[in-house]
Design a protein that fits this description.
six-stranded mixed sheet, alpha+beta, 53 helices, Immunoglobulin-like
């Protein structure tokens, strides 16, 4: 028997014999351990490995589960499984199928304190996790793996091995990444990095950073690392000792993945990432280069510098010259053959830092970049990057640093200006470099190289008159270069031979004819060149009697700064009228001295507390023009101030706060966002503030305002809205604020054209103090009562504006921001033909988003026009009203002050609007050109004058008497007389491209007006020294509507008959009756008769569009012939007996009983509305006639 068994054993394979022995000696752990060891040796052969996997996996795993307490057996079995699974996908899948993953996780859990067994089990799991299905199964045991790993923090080798295993389990598997993140793996890894004892272990640093880099693929992990001070820990690990190349690669990749989240940029800069990255670059150049490390490092530098440039963050404190050297970047770009890498290194240059960085960006940097461009595979992009550095070089740096390779550099610059002949800033900067080189004492270049720029300078000057956007300031350096050349005989001859005399003469005439004032330096240069050429550029008359003195400098144009509207050019009377006492003057000196001290300290205590990145809360919208900040600011530091900072927000409808900076415990600098795609027009402000302490005075300084004057100097206060007061006490917007002052500050305004420091305009500051009564409250602060797109849509959704018999809503056009520009058509749709037969009245508002009072006035007009008031019914029967309540929806939505998304003032585009750029203006003008318009009014707000006033259109030769009629009626209206100042009205035309002027002059509409309402209040009557409130603005709209009715049917006509006609369903031609009555008044020689509104178009057509005086001879000729008004049919009187007496509507206040019982068939004013009727509608339904009210006002003045 024994011999037979021995013979059978010899016939079977050795693998099978070992497996049989494991089965036979299932209760002997030592025998099983020995067999597993022998099988591990045999499994090095692929055929044996397959045989063991096919026949023995179940046997081995059964033995492991049976002897789970024997650590030696389990270690040998894990090593066997590890060897079997190595580089063999079928075996990996088979182990998982036989339950091997569960057995291995059980080993880890039971023997977590045994380092050797734990290493073998983790190594097997790491090998198995290379299959995606196995990753899913192993993910269920991640808590077990993490718990075992955390017990061996001091075991450096095992910790690094465990982290590598964990990385292999989670890489590419989002679910497993989320599991370990929720288990607190990030905090554990950061604690490992913060342990100084681990910094000397590159393997631990590498494994830890590799795991963190995998986790950074999850959203928000990078920010979590920054919030936990992980960036500082990473930098400390990199700085503790030189790292091997592979470890350095892993760490830079980790930093790169963290930097993908823009929120962490401030923390990265503050923690010193830039210095560490430059050290990495230096190490890469000194040792073997790793392209992945270089790419990641340069990409991080690009992101950091781009963030700092766009947010005006000064990087100079974080860039020590001893470490951060620009030559290092250039040498790396030169030595590296990869074009993408070289471009990435180039983009890492910091050419737009608020403070000069001479170690990084200098003339030598520019020279090297231009030289490398000629040898690169993508010379165009390389050249553009080099020229970008050149354009941003400071003039002082150009003058102080000579060219190192003049021949190559000047040749490259000459090629650059020939390649980009329209870039005026590049041309100006190139001539500055050439002139500085010519004036230096180390000229080694051949004269032909310098004279090559002569032709370029002549072409530059000759194109001044035809090029758009070029200003005289940009020509100074070219003229200085030419004047230097004229200092030698050869240079003077060259200038003359190339036609320099005629070119310079024409250039001088073009400069003097330019709208922009030429700088004094340019005038001196032109005068000096004229002396050297013996040619007076300005002609004999210009220089007669002046000797050799340069022309005098003219005073700057006071109207150079664009103002409120086309009507803001004030004459002497306006100056006298607006000579209000500056009530804020007592605070200006204190604020100015405080600001000077702050600037002197370089804003050392200032810290950023709010930065907006989404205009109007829309992440898809971003300005094409970089935001300009008055000064650079540091990052938040809780230790700087004793009190916690306020929280701000403006990412909502019409909000526009860009940045908030805490400069003291209770003082904040506020920076407004310019109009989108511009660098200016900052005046409107609207933001929210919270985290305030009750009864603490907070001072706010808005430091980047553009206008040199404001009503804040004469008593205007901001408006505030407390959410808690609105909820608990029904208190809405109120004026508030103390110590209000408005003054110039030392910060320079950004200019599209470079100017000398002495000519550059400065920003203005609005300073005010607010005290908040409640804790845990949110307060809104604004320039004036906001009227947002949400308010607009809510108002249009009211039942009164949804009645199809009275008003019909349509879309005029779609804006650049894909918003609907609403058009309302209001008329009596139930009587007669509407299209083409009734005259049209056009009303528009809110072309300037920062003038919200225009919308409140428009709301008052609309509420009146759709009401059941007799005057409203009369207007609807006589006219068709085309109303555009929001002419600039994009600007209102995104918190602009004057512009839309086209980056221009839409009220300057009426002359020739383009539908693709100015869709609302083009559509409104197109509609008006097809309609019989008799009246147009554009409603605005005014930030520099008080009262309500209007502007009309006179011709150049004659006054327009028709344009005086409506403002006079409005100023005499019983409501309007409280607001409207007739003396402030103006009828001169200053700008030809505004709505009022284009409609009045080009379309021939005599009644073309702009209505201006002050941000502040009135300076006369019962409202003097008081702010206008929302009720006042709606009353102005009501007065506007009632005055239109008075203009349509002037005094002296029998209104009773007209109102009786309105009560019937029979359609009569009221226009004919009004015309015949007016002609009868003229026949009776009633010289004070007012021409009805609808007849003004006839007068204009007879006078061929001229605004001359009305002919009187025609009226006198008709005196002999008696004109009898055409009577209305008697049926109107019969029907009127069944209705309330019309005289009541004209002379008495309607009774409450009658008003409550009357049920109109029209849906206007229906009780189905869920909102109470506006104030203007209530007044329109219950007001007495204007004459009776006039009598009451004379005897009983309105209380203040």
């Amino acid at each position: 028997v024994y011999a037979h068994a021995a013979a059978a054993e010899l016939r079977m394979s050795r693998v099978q014999a070992l497996l049989n022995r494991i089965v036979e000696y299932a209760d002997d752990p030592n025998t099983i351990k020995t067999c597993c060891g022998v099988l591990s040796i045999l499994s090095r052969s692929e055929d044996k490995k397959t045989e063991i996997a096919n026949a023995g996996l179940a046997v081995i795993l059964h033995a492991m589960n049976t002897h789970m307490a024997n650590e030696d057996l389990l270690e040998a079995a894990c090593d066997l499984l590890w060897t079997l699974a190595f580089n063999n996908k079928p075996v990996k899948a088979s182990i998982s199928t036989h339950g091997g993953i569960a057995t291995l996780l059980r080993c880890v859990d039971v023997h977590r304190l045994n380092p050797a067994l734990l290493r073998s089990a983790l190594g097997t799991l790491s090998n198995l996790s290379q299959l995606v299905d196995n990753q899913q199964h192993i993910g269920a045991g991640l808590p077990v793996v993490m718990a075992a790993m955390q017990l061996h923090v001091r075991n450096v080798d095992l910790l690094a091995f465990a982290l590598d295993t964990l990385t292999s389990i989670i890489i590419g598997h989002e679910r497993n990444c989320r599991v370990v993140y929720e288990l607190g793996l990030v905090d554990f890894l950061l604690d490992v990095l913060k342990d100084r004892n681990q910094h000397a272990r590159p393997a631990v640093v590498k494994s830890t950073c590799h795991t963190l880099a995998i986790l950074c693929e999850l959203p928000g992990v990078g920010k979590g690392i920054a919030d936990a001070h992980g960036i500082a820990a990473i930098i400390a690990a990199m700085s503790a000792a030189p790292l091997p190349t592979d470890v350095e690669r892993i760490v830079t990749v980790l930093l790169f993945r963290i930097s993908k989240d823009p929120v962490v940029m401030p923390q990265m800069i503050h923690d010193g990432v830039v210095v560490v990255l430059f050290r990495v670059l230096a190490n890469q150049r000194a040792n073997s280069k790793c392209s992945e490390t270089l790419l990641a490092t340069c990409h991080i530098l690009c992101l950091l510098t781009q963030f700092a440039s766009s947010h005006a963050v000064d990087l100079s404190p974080h860039l020590p010259p001893s470490v951060c050297d620009g030559d290092l970047l250039l040498r790396l770009a030169t030595e590296n053959a990869s074009p993408p890498l070289a471009l990435s290194i180039f983009r890492a240059h910091l050419s737009r830092n608020p403070v000069p960085l001479p170690a990084l960006v200098n003339v030598s940097t520019m020279e090297s970049m231009l030289t490398l461009a000629s040898f690169h595979s993508n010379p165009q992009e390389m050249l553009q990057l080099g020229l970008q550095v050149l354009v941003n070089l400071r003039r002082s740096m150009i003058a102080a640093q000579p060219l190192r390779s003049p021949d190559k550099s000047l040749a490259a610059l000459l090629l650059a200006i020939r390649t980009f002949p329209d870039d005026v800033h590049l041309l100006d900067q190139v001539f500055c470099v050439v002139t500085s080189y010519c004036l230096s004492n180390t000229i080694t270049t051949h004269p032909r190289t310098v004279f090559g720029f002569l032709g370029a300078a002549m072409r530059f000057l000759s194109r001044f008159s035809s090029a758009a956007g070029w200003t005289p300031q940009c020509m100074v350096e070219a003229c200085r270069f030419l004047l230097h050349l004229m200092g030698s005989k050869d240079g003077l001859d060259s200038v003359v031979s190339c036609g320099g005399v005629s070119i310079l003469s024409q250039f001088n005439r073009d400069v003097m004819a330019n709208d922009a004032m030429p700088p004094p330096e340019l005038e001196k240069l032109l005068h000096a060149m004229s002396l050297r050429l013996h040619t007076p550029f300005g002609g004999s008359e210009a220089n007669e009697g002046e000797g050799n003195q340069p022309p005098e400098q003219q005073p700057p144009d006071e109207n150079e700064i664009d103002d409120e509207d086309e009507e803001d050019v004030m004459d002497e009377d306006d100056d006298e009228e607006n000579s209000d006492i500056d009530v804020s003057a007592i605070y200006v000196d204190v604020r100015t001295s405080m600001r000077a001290a702050l600037v002197q300290s370089d804003h050392a205590d200032a810290q950023l507390v709010y930065q907006s990145t989404r205009p109007g809360g829309d992440a898809a919208v971003a300005s094409a023009v970089p935001d300009a900040y008055p000064y650079a600011v540091g990052f938040p530091d809780p230790s700087r101030h004793a009190t916690p900072p306020l929280t701000f927000d403006s990412e909502f409808d019409s909000g526009n706060l860009l940045r908030a900076v805490q400069i003291a415990d209770t003082e904040y600098d506020l920076i407004l966002r310019p109009d989108l795609h511009t660098q200016g027009y900052t005046q409107w402000f609207y933001f929210a503030v919270a985290n305030t302490e009750p009864d603490v005075a907070y001072t706010f300084h808005i430091v980047n305002l553009h206008k040199p004057d404001s009503l804040f100097r004469t008593g205007l206060q901001p408006v505030v809205y407390s959410v808690q007061d609105a909820t608990c006490r029904a208190v809405g917007w109120t004026h508030a604020g103390s110590n209000v002052c408005y003054f110039a500050n030392p910060y320079k305004q950004p200019s599209p054209v470079p100017r000398p420091c002495t000519d550059q305009l400065t920003f203005f500051t609005l300073s005010f103090t607010l005290t908040f009564p409640h804790a845990h409250d949110t307060t809104l602060v604004a320039h004036s009562y906001p009227y947002t797109m949400h308010d607009h849509r809510w108002h249009l959704a009211r039942p009164a504006l949804r009645c199809p018999d009275v008003v019909r809503q349509s879309v005029l056009c779609t804006t650049l921001g894909q918003q609907a520009c609403d058009l309302l058509t209001i008329t009596d749709f139930g009587h007669g033909h509407v299209d083409g037969r009734r005259p049209v009245v056009v009303l528009t508002a809110r072309v300037h988003p920062g003038e919200p009072q225009a919308s409140w006035i428009m709301r008052g007009v609309l509420d009146f026009l759709v009401s059941d008031a007799p005057d409203a019914k009369l207007l609807r029967r006589l006219f068709v009203f085309k109303v555009v309540p929001m002419l600039n929806p994009d600007g209102v939505m995104y918190g602009n002050n004057r512009c839309g998304l086209a980056g221009c003032d839409l009220n300057r585009q009426w002359k020739a609007p383009r539908g693709a750029v100015h869709p609302t203006i083009a559509a409104a003008k197109s509609v008006m050109q097809t309609l019989p318009v008799v009246f147009y009014c554009d409603i605005h707000g005014h930030s520099r004058k008080k009262n309500v006033f209007m502007y009309g259109c006179d011709s150049r030769k004659h006054a327009n008497p028709i344009a005086r009629t409506f403002p006079t009626l409005l100023s005499n209206h019983w409501i309007g007389r409280q607001f409207v100042s007739l003396d402030a009205c103006n009828f001169q035309v200053h700008r030809e491209s505004t709505a009022r002027v284009v409609v009045g002059k080009d379309m021939g509409i005599a009644n073309s007006f702009t209505l201006e309402a002050s941000f502040c209040g009135a300076d006369f009557g019962v409202l003097a020294a008081r702010h206008f409130n929302l009720g006042h603005f709606e009353d102005i709209g009501l007065a506007l509507g009632q005055t239109l009715a008075e203009y349509a049917v002037p005094d002296g006509m029998n209104r009773r008959t007209i109102y009786e006609c309105l009560q019937t369903d029979d359609c009569h031609d009221l226009h004919e009756y009004i015309e015949s009555t007016y002609n009868q008044q003229l026949a009776d020689d009633q010289l004070g008769a007012i021409m009805p509104l609808h007849m003004t178009t006839l007068v204009l057509s007879e006078r061929n569009g001229s605004f001359g005086r009305l002919p009187r001879k025609a009226a006198k000729a008709k005196k002999k012939k008696k004109v009898v008004p055409s009577p209305l049919p008697s049926v109107a009187v019969v029907v009127a007996k069944q209705l309330p007496s019309p005289s009541v509507a004209l002379a008495k206040k309607p009774s409450a009983k009658l008003s409550s019982k009357k049920v109109s068939s029209n849906c206007v004013g229906s009780k189905s509305s869920s909102t109470p009727p506006p104030l203007a509608l209530k007044k329109a339904l219950s007001l007495p006639s204007p004459k009776i009210q006039d009598t009451r006002l004379k005897h009983h003045p309105t209380p203040s």
